[in-house]
Write a structure and sequence with these properties.
The complex is a heterodimer of chains A (about 220) and B (about 110).
Chain A (H helix, E strand, L loop, with lengths): L5 H15 L7 H4 L5 H22 L5 H8 L5 H13 L6 H7 L5 H11 L8 H7 L3 H19 L5 H9 L11 H22 L2 H12 L5
Helix pairs in contact in A: 1-3, 3-4, 6-11, 6-12, 7-12, 8-11, 9-11
Chain B lengths: L11 H14 L1 H4 L4 H16 L6 H11 L9 H12 L6 H11 L4
Helix pairs in contact in B: 1-3, 3-4, 4-5
Classes of the chains: A mainly alpha (about 220), B mainly alpha (about 110).
Amino acid sequence: MTAPTEDDFKHWGIACYCFSLDLSDGLVPLAIPAVAPLISKQACREAIIRNREHITHTGRPTYMRDLVRDSWQGSGHAEFDLYVEQVFISPARRSNLDLKLLRPLNDADRLAAANKALADELDGESYAAALHSLISTDISQALFDTVMEIDSAIDGQKLTNWDEDLIARNSEIHSPESPLTLIIHTLMQSITYDAAHRLHDRLSASTQQALNLACEAPAHA
Amino acid sequence: MHSIDPLTAAARSQILTLADEIAEAFPAYWGRVPRTFLALKVREWARQIEDSNVWEPKHVKRIVRAVFSPAPELISQDEMDYVMSVLSHSGAGGEARSRTIWSALSPRL
């Protein structure tokens, strides 16, 4: 096993910050369905407390991942570990197809190329519209409702003691107004990836090939 | 269009209204996205822009609309000039946000 890097230390710290918050309760079932929010929250809180004690005694932080592993009570640890690895530490390791299929959404030239590639099969509908139409309405609604509850709690200053204290302690690192941005953004990305794959899978092999080429075209060609 | 109150920018009805306006303005791009998903994206931008109240509510709304335009030809020159003017006068507190918005808008310029 390779030694943890500085990034590993940092990202496990961020993960513990996010998942220790009461605010994250509603997001955990959407982000990591196999994990019970109370279990992940308790393990992250215990890790934070033990890390503070370690710093007091040694002057140095310790590796939060190991503390979370030690503190975890119940099932779901492997899923949590994998989620943190994929989302917090190495999001760029998404599959090439994932990354490629979303490029036209952020680039007008690639979008035009994708539209052209799909013109016959989508009967003139834009790639963006076709992809967006496959985004799950139910999951979007669930995420939207959860996020609105989180924002209301923050804006209305209705935070639990733990959340208020931790958010204040970390206000120079994480926005106090949007402490869970990373999880929410990642969930939105995952929803979009899923829709892109569904669209891709529906296309004929030749159109898939044409779309892949359009997505791979140099930006602003 | 209504202004977004900076203290309640994430408020449900305001965000949904802005999402509806964007879908209506750019139907070929945003017209078929689930309303709440577009609202989540709008909320993400609005919150990123206004979380330190760097800009006035009316600025937030117009910046968000410009960011969600799928192509440069769909933003009027007046609108783009307005947004650029706001960004260039955002002061020290708005520098990071200005950079973020610039990077989102630059492919559209």
